[in-house]
Design a protein that fits this description.
The protein is an alpha+beta fold. It has 15 helices and 16 strands.
Length: about 500
């Protein structure tokens, strides 16, 4: 049978109030942290889930649980730091609070199998993984020579080749196995954050960063060939991998190898709220991870306009700057030092690590504005003095006879990577770039606050389901609660 719709969000709120009067007549008896969760879930409208998932159920058979109640319950399990669905199903039977907040009558709660059935309906594929179990052995990443640095890319394709390929690819959301998860996340959480002004979708300042997600202590694979029986122990034949979407990568923060995914997060830098996630294998370099996440986000959120991107030095590649210039996106990307700088500019000037011209005397030039029409930045001599209203050059070896000293124009098209606007030496650039850590803060919340890695799942389906519900909770936590608790008044029946 089709799921029985419990009614509107108002009906759910009435259900919670009625049962709280019975089981928790004194709201102050609950811990403050618990009450904060109660308030947020009481105000959380998940009625879209019931409508959206109606066609995912058969018209025959026993009546299933209401989808919104199942989703709310799964969200609660993550919020209350219960990482096992088996344990959560047991907790629902023992704790009336969990049952009531979920929307279940105490004593009549779903078993663990019902939760897995619900998750299966959220995954739009018969396969629990996105790659086949049988595939060739992958090239293992090399440990970096410097501690705390990321491993070099093992990709055979370059950024210059990958970017135009993904740019010209149309990603259809309906073809993605996580399409239902994304749709629910967008309609019930992301769009709400946009409507409340937390995220400005018309001028999005996007921060990006990859983070390791450990799924198991070791890689599990087995031979499917007869080479070992024939005395060949180092054959390159295909293997069967139990987690085909994962491989071995290098965790620069923990300074060790790990088996799992590389989670690339695109985050709104102003609110620290997640916008779009993408799982790749652990060996995926951030410069590639960003492109896979970014162009999928553009396809799935076509109404979003990106005005700025904030990325670390792993993304410092010329094709990035060229693309952002075409798309009228201002890049804030740190230099990695490997891209090099022109040895000489304008015959006798050099360029420093921040893209600022250095005069023959070794002084950094002073920025004097941007000539947008000509696509160039203007720099003047830093030794010019205006003391007592008199203009004079205080340099012992002046390189120009001009009254205002030597002027240098950096033509941005000459090197859009190095000649950044605003320049990396400016306060404007540093202030904006500091917001890049929003991606790191978002990753910290997912991994530490909501215990992403504690899921210990074996399928990409389960990892994506857990991840998207954690993102939902991040948005939920950011929404303001009413200054005065309506729920408490209703429980106490205060007029």
């Amino acid at each position: 049978m089709l799921p029985v719709n419990c009614g509107s969000h108002a009906d759910y709120q009435h259900f919670v109030v009625t049962n709280f009067r019975k089981y928790y007549p004194d709201p102050d008896a609950l811990a403050r942290s618990t009450w904060d969760i109660v308030e947020r879930f009481w105000n959380l409208d998940l009625s879209f889930t019931d409508t959206f998932m109606a066609d995912k159920y058969s018209k025959f058979g026993p009546a299933p649980r209401t989808p919104s109640s199942m989703q709310r319950s799964y969200l609660l399990s993550i919020d209350f730091k219960v990482t096992s669905l088996t344990e959560w199903a047991a907790q629902l039977k023992m704790n009336p609070l969990y049952a009531i907040l979920s929307g279940f009558e105490p004593g009549n709660t779903p078993g663990v199998g019902t939760f897995y059935d619900f998750i299966n309906r959220l995954w739009n594929s018969d396969d629990d993984h996105m790659s086949p179990h049988i595939h060739p052995l992958k090239t293992r990443v090399k440990k970096p020579k410097t501690k705390g640095t990321k491993a070099d890319s093992v990709e055979k394709v370059t950024v210059a080749e990958l970017l135009p390929s993904l740019e010209n690819t149309v990603f259809n959301l309906d073809e993605q196995p996580y399409s239902s998860l994304f749709t629910i996340y967008q309609k019930e959480f992301l769009d709400v954050s946009v409507s409340t002004g937390l995220i400005h979708s018309d001028a999005l300042a996007l921060a990006g960063d990859g983070t390791p997600v450990v799924t198991s202590h070791r890689e599990r694979k087995k031979r499917i060939c007869k080479c070992k029986e024939n005395g060949i122990t180092d054959c390159k034949c295909d293997r069967y991998f139990s987690q085909p979407d994962c491989d071995i990568g290098w965790d620069s923060s923990r300074d060790c190898y790990y088996h799992g995914y590389d989670l690339y997060m695109l985050v709104d830098s102003q609110s620290d709220l997640p916008v779009f996630p993408h799982f790749s294998c652990a060996s995926k370099h951030d410069s590639h991870g960003f492109l896979h996440a970014f162009f999928r986000m553009k396809s799935f959120l076509p109404d979003y306009t990106v005005s700025k991107v904030l990325l670390d030095s792993a993304h410092d590649a010329m094709p990035y700057y060229q693309y952002f210039k075409r798309e009228n996106i201002t890049p804030f990307i740190d230099l990695n030092g490997k891209g090099g700088r022109p040895s000489v500019y304008k015959n006798d000037f050099t360029i420093d690590k921040d893209g600022v011209p250095v005069c023959p005397s070794g002084c950094r030039m002073r920025r004097d504005g941007v000539e947008a029409a000509k696509g160039r930045m203007k720099f003047k001599c830093p030794k010019i003095s205006h003391k007592n209203g008199c203009i004079s050059c205080t340099c012992e070896t002046p390189c120009s006879d001009a009254r205002y000293g030597r002027t240098v124009h950096l033509v941005m098209k000459d090197n859009p990577r190095l000649f950044n606007n605003p320049p990396r030496s400016s306060k404007e650039w540093k202030l904006e770039y500091n917001a890049r850590t929003s991606a790191e803060r978002s990753n910290k919340r997912e991994k530490l606050d909501f215990k992403l890695e504690d899921g210990r799942h074996r399928s990409t389906k389960m990892w994506y389901c857990r991840l998207y519900h954690i993102l939902m909770l991040q948005h939920l936590d950011a929404w303001d609660l009413p200054p005065e608790s309506t729920l408490k008044k209703m429980i106490l029946d205060v007029a």
